[in-house]
Amino acid sequence: MTESPRAHIAMFSIAAHGHVNPSLDVIRELVDRGHRVSYAIPASFAEKVAATGAEPVIYTSTLPTDEDPEAWGTELIDNIEPFLDDAIQALPRLAEAFVGDEPDLVLHDITSYPARVLAHRWGVPAVSLWLNLVPWEGYEEEVGEPMTAELKQTERGKAYYARFANWLAENGLGHVSSDDFVARPRHGLVLIPEALQPNADRVDQAMYTFVGACQGDRADQGEWTRPAGAERVLLVSLGSSFTKQPAFYRECVEASRGLPGWHVVLQIGAHVDPAELGDVPGNVEVRTWVPQLAVLKQADAFITHAGAGGSQEGLATGTPMVAVPQAVDQFGNADMLQSLGVARHLPMEEADAASLRAAVLALVDDPEVAARCRRLSERMAREGGTPRAADLIEAELRR
User: Fold this and answer.
1) C-beta separation of 151 from 157 below 8 A
2) Are 389 and 191 contacting, i.e. CB atoms less than 8 angstroms apart?
3) Cα separation of 176 and 169, whole Å?
4) Within 13 A of 94's CA, how many CA atoms are on the CB side?
5) How far apart are CA 369 and CA 233, in angstroms?
6) Which of 377, 382, 373 lies closest to 211, judged by CA?
7) What is the DSSP letter of 200?
8) Spacing of C-alpha 305 from chain mean position
């Protein structure tokens, strides 16, 4: 392979663990290969980014953060409008930060709208790091249009789409619709296993390349040791954003009570007081945060919200899952995991102690589930992960 010249690469993301974390190992690999990476990110993630060897480029964001998930509202427009608002205010500041030091290539999270505008302005290739399922051929007709049809008839919706179209036109991208701008990148590297992708046979392979999980060893997150005498380990985690669920955690505690030989790691996040859980048995380890991948490598089962990160970590480690989705793409992920035969989709309203315990025990006692978990883990490993992602980024540089 022809060696790529050392390049300046600019990465753009938002202040959310689920968006930053999947990119970090790719960034670390690019730095290790000798590239200079500038990573545009709000200050709260600067230290995490700097640990990869990239240089943080700090900008101020107006987006709600993981610490305040309720600020996202309840309607579709509440979920999408903040990204456009943030892009409009951040674009001039980000452009100024790179004056005289424009990159050779732009990497960006799917929510980082200014990145594609700047790549167009600078005349450099843009590659999206796609962290969840991608649209397939026919997606607009089957999912997109039904989901947005009502919104596009409201005054607020009309104003949003008109504002988006005007912003694109002002920045030389008037030929691209706002829907295509968001969902159809020039080239997307998909950082989830293809097994999680609905209608994978209808995905445009020229636009999207599945490279699978780019997890790295996560040594910087710390280690976790399986307690002596623990015959089986269960991890319970609802990720980083939708963790304010004390009633659900109490059901998990009750499900764990009296389970002989089981050690349960219960991550409750920063917004629940452990005192809200009541009487916790000795086999339950309550933590505000855990190094998830380190635990999963030693776990026998995983109760998860089925976010993109958790789902692929469960698949990569061959851990059977009980999926209790909370929002957005998690419901689809839960259905996909169940269809693969490695999980049970348990809706939140049905996730009582008895149901949780029954689902976990049924999964771990089924040898067919174990065999499917093993096959999917092996299939994921063949997708290439971080090295393949870095190879494809360098191929863009050579072009």
Assistant:
1) yes
2) yes
3) 9
4) 32
5) 17
6) 382
7) G
8) 12
Per-residue tens of pLDDT for the chain, all 399 residues = 445 568 999 999 999 888 998 899 999 999 999 999 999 999 999 999 999 999 999 999 999 876 676 777 788 899 899 999 999 999 999 999 999 999 999 999 999 999 999 999 999 999 999 988 899 999 999 988 998 999 999 999 999 999 999 999 999 999 999 999 998 898 999 998 898 898 999 999 999 999 988 876 666 677 898 988 899 999 999 987 777 899 999 999 999 997 889 999 999 988 888 999 999 999 999 999 999 999 999 999 999 999 888 898 999 899 999 999 987 778 989 999 999 999 999 999 999 999 999 999 999 999 999 999 999 999 988 999 999 999 999 999 987
Q: H/E element holding 396?
A: helix 385-398
The size of the chain, in residues, is 399
Q: How far apart are CA 65 and CA 71, in angstroms?
A: 8
Distance CA 156, CA 187 (A): 31
Q: With H, G, I as helix, E, B as strand and everything else as coil, classify residue 260.
A: coil
Backbone angles phi, psi at 266, to 5 degrees: -110, 105
Phi, psi dihedral angles at 17 (to 5 degrees): -55, -40
Residue found under tokens 């007081």: 273
Residues with Cβ < 8 Å from 231, sequence gap 6 or more?
Answer: 260, 261, 262
The two structure tokens encoding residue 162: 């008109």
The shares of helix, strand and coil residues in the chain, as percent rounded to the nearest 5, are 45, 15, 40
| Sign of the dihedral defined by the CA atoms of residues 228, 234, 235, 237, in that order | negative
Helix (H) or strand (E) holding 181: helix 178-183
What gap in Å lies between CA 321 and CA 329, rounded to an integer?
Answer: 16
Distance, in Å, from the CA atom of 125 to the CA atom of 108, rounded to the nearest integer, reads 11
Q: How far apart are CA 331 and CA 328, in angstroms?
A: 7
The CA angle 12-16-21, to the nearest 5 degrees, is 75
CB atoms within 10 A of CB 160: 19
Question: Would you state the pLDDT for residue 218?
Answer: 64
Q: What is the DSSP letter of 12?
A: E
Distance CA 320, CA 173 (A): 45
